[in-house]
Amino acid sequence: VCDLEPGAIVSDACASYNTLEQLNDAIHPYLHSITQNTDFFSHYRLSLYSKKCPFWSDENGMCGNVACAVNTLENEEDIPLVWRAKELGRLEGPTATHPGKTQQQENRQRPLQGKLGAGVDESCVVEYDDECDDRDYCVPEDQSATAKGDYVSLVENPERFTGYSGVGAQQVWESIYRENCFSKPPKDVQSSAQSPFGGASPFGGFGNEQQLVAANQLRNIMKEQGIQQNVKSAIAGGNAPERLDPVEFDDTCIEKRVFYRVVSGMHASISTHLCYDYLNQTTGEWNPNLACYEERLHKFPDRISNLYFNYALMLRAVGKIKQHVKDYSFCSEDPVQDTRTKNSVLRLASALPDGPEVFDESVMFRDPDAIALKEDFRNRFRNVSRIMDCVGCDKCRLWGKLQTNGYGTALKVLFEFDESDSSKDPPLRRTELVALINTLHRLSHSLSAIKEFRQMIEKRDNIP
Ligand code: FAD
């Protein structure tokens, strides 16, 4: 018997889902501990309020519910040592100055020379968050050297039901999905026979069935919401699609399908969290809401499939930087805390799968027009990260930005990092590392929540 009953989508999905669920049972406790119990991974810095929605006036979409609010850390003493700007800049002088790209490059090549001092790890010294690298899949959070951003405790501001909905939320989702509408006609239809989950991967044989599901899904969105041309034309940069044609989507190449699945999987994960941590407005209690799950996810096996897809993708990305994570310096000036953080990271790293077992990114961007396609892909993902500034609920914006950064970082690791020679890898900012691990944790939590929801359905329906 298939646990998830997604037979309509992937014939061998049970084995695939089971494999990922088993992996999740193994790593969830480590991810939970690292994200809840270490200062480094339980805090985040971002521009939460200072950026305006670049695409439309967002005044009408603001969420007034108390659940939408975020408590930021306003006082320096409330910010954990490991996150204080002063601490980060201490070896550069009283005020940290950004070293600029050239010096960063030099520092990377000669990490033990110059101002940094022998044996001092770079991650303790300078911040890279306000510098853009061409290989980034997200727009950096802090655009100016002086903007230090807002500090938040992720534990104190959990992602859960906020009540944010209506036209504002719909407009954001709609414009995110429109980014999937790549302007070039798909030349590489033949490559669609291959999937990053092909061969021995647990997602074997996705291919054409998935295309069909994705196209149907897109048709549903179009039917349910209608396509608003004004949103399309509002997208900055002039690279909006000429038209949204679901038939074209039917034949689309693997890279474009991956883009769609990442976005849909992120959406599904957000829906899972809000259904799992739902406010019963009559009793005032926070509980899982089975009806919410059935309405938004259970009825749509393709959405659940996309969520599992994202889990596999993130696992591969974090697995790829296993060594980097193991070697990372946590510089709180508190050796006890640093050791605890390091041990948590080591436990996680040791439980991660090796190599491209769950996701093989090497089948992507192989065709002759791969460079242009990759750039298009990257630009579109950057646009998704810009759209996050249009989310009219602070809490949703916080988690939306963090998870977009997490997926953007994963894509950067998958497509720009070289496992055999790391010397030319782009830098990994501390906010990217924190977003990456927290996004994996969010997905891991989604898998656990879905399992619980499934059991609730089985119990209710007396399924043995
Ligand atoms: P929505 O979830 O708004 O979906 C809109 C349409 O998209 C659906 O009608 C459907 O056609 C399609 N769709 C839905 N799911 C998928 C999928 N997985 N794949 C493909 N298509 C899909 N609310 C909270 O309570 N807490 C939060 O933390 C939160 N975070 C958010 C973060 C972001 C970035 C955004 C944009 C919204 C967030 N929201 C949050 C709001 C929430 O996502 C919903 O928009 C809201 O609950 C209204 O839901 P809905 O039923 O109208 O459908």
UniProtKB/TrEMBL annotation:
Cofactor field: FAD
Positions that bind FAD: R160, T162, W173, S264, H267, R296
Compartment list: Endoplasmic reticulum membrane
Keywords for this protein: Disulfide bond, Electron transport, Endoplasmic reticulum, FAD, Flavoprotein, Glycoprotein, Membrane, Oxidoreductase, Redox-active center, Signal, Transport
Renumbered residue ranges of the record's region Disordered: 92-114
Residue numbers annotated as active site: C393 (nucleophile), C396
Superkingdom of the source species: Eukaryota
Disulphide bonds in the chain: C63-C68, C393-C396
GO cellular component labels: endoplasmic reticulum membrane
Keyword Electron transport belongs to the record: yes
GO biological process, one term: protein folding in endoplasmic reticulum
Main location: endoplasmic reticulum
Topology relative to the membrane: Peripheral membrane protein
GO molecular function: FAD binding; protein-disulfide reductase activity; thiol oxidase activity
Family of this protein: Belongs to the EROs family.
Subunit structure and binding partners: May function both as a monomer and a homodimer.
Protein name (Swiss-Prot/TrEMBL): Endoplasmic oxidoreductin
Source organism of the structure: Massarina eburnea CBS 473.64
Shown stretch of the complete protein: 38 to 501 of 577
